[in-house]
Amino acid sequence: MDLNSKLLELKNICINNNIPIIRDNTLDLILNWIKNNDIYSILEIGTAYGYSSLAFSMNEKINFIETIEKNFNNYKIAIDFISPLKIEKLNLLNIDAFEYETNKKFDLIFIDGPKSNQIKLFNKYLHFLSDNGVIFIDNLYLNKIRNIPEESKTNSQKNIIKKVDEFVNYLKSQKSWKFELIDIDDGVGIVKKYE
């Protein structure tokens, strides 16, 4: 079975259903990081339809991926699409990110989940990171919302921007890890613990 064609099929399903997916440059950035570092396991927060986790699973270096999705309908579509592919190293879970628990440590954590409480989410997931691991955080620019004229933004949109800005400032202010905001796509944060 050609996984590349299945990945493209899933990408088109996401696009046709207006399901946000990881952008190409962000995916390339993460895949290059995997290639050049000791990355063998991934935890993803925010499965959606499973596009990014399927893309990560195609990397031969990766031996385990756990991906979590709160929305049951998204999870069901992801399971229905990915299960027939029989990718044993890919584990999909239908659970709220704030309720997830594990004894595992992951080399890479990809956060593309809820934007409203990211500081709490980040601090929870930091405990699941291996000593030399890295956290990627997608969509820190929120350009789609920021580009709406100020008078047209809803209170909810203004609040999300405020929360994400607070999160970025929090990441910049901490001394126990290195934070870098990469200017690609919709802004990608990279967090590494200081050795």
- What is the highest CATH level, the class? Alpha Beta
The number of distinct helices, counting runs of at least 4 residues, comes to: 7
CATH architectural grouping: 3-Layer(aba) Sandwich
Strand fraction equals: 15-25%
Keywords: Methyltransferase, S-adenosyl-L-methionine, Transferase
GO molecular function: O-methyltransferase activity
InterPro entries: SAM-dependent_MTases_sf, SAM_O-MeTrfase
Protein name: O-methyltransferase
How would you portray this structure in words?
One of its GO terms (molecular function) is O-methyltransferase activity. It holds the Pfam family Methyltransf_3. The protein has a 7-stranded mixed sheet with strand order 3-2-1-4-5-7-6, with helices on both faces. The longest helix is centred in the C-terminal third of the chain and has 19 residues, at 155-173. The chain contains 7 helices and 7 strands. It is globular. By secondary structure, it is α/β, with parallel strands linked by helices.
Secondary structure elements and their pairing?
Blueprint: H1 3-16, H2 24-36, E1 41-45, H3 51-57, E2 64-69, H4 72-82, E3 90-94, E4 106-111, H5 118-126, E5 129-137, H6 143-146, H7 155-173, E6 177-182, E7 188-193
Parallel strand pairs: 1-2, 1-4, 2-3, 4-5
Antiparallel strand pairs: 5-7, 6-7
In summary, what is this structure?
This is O-methyltransferase. The protein is an alpha/beta fold. It has helices spanning 3-16, 24-36, 51-57, 72-82, 118-126, 143-146, 155-173; strands at 41-45, 64-69, 90-94, 106-111, 129-137, 177-182, 188-193.
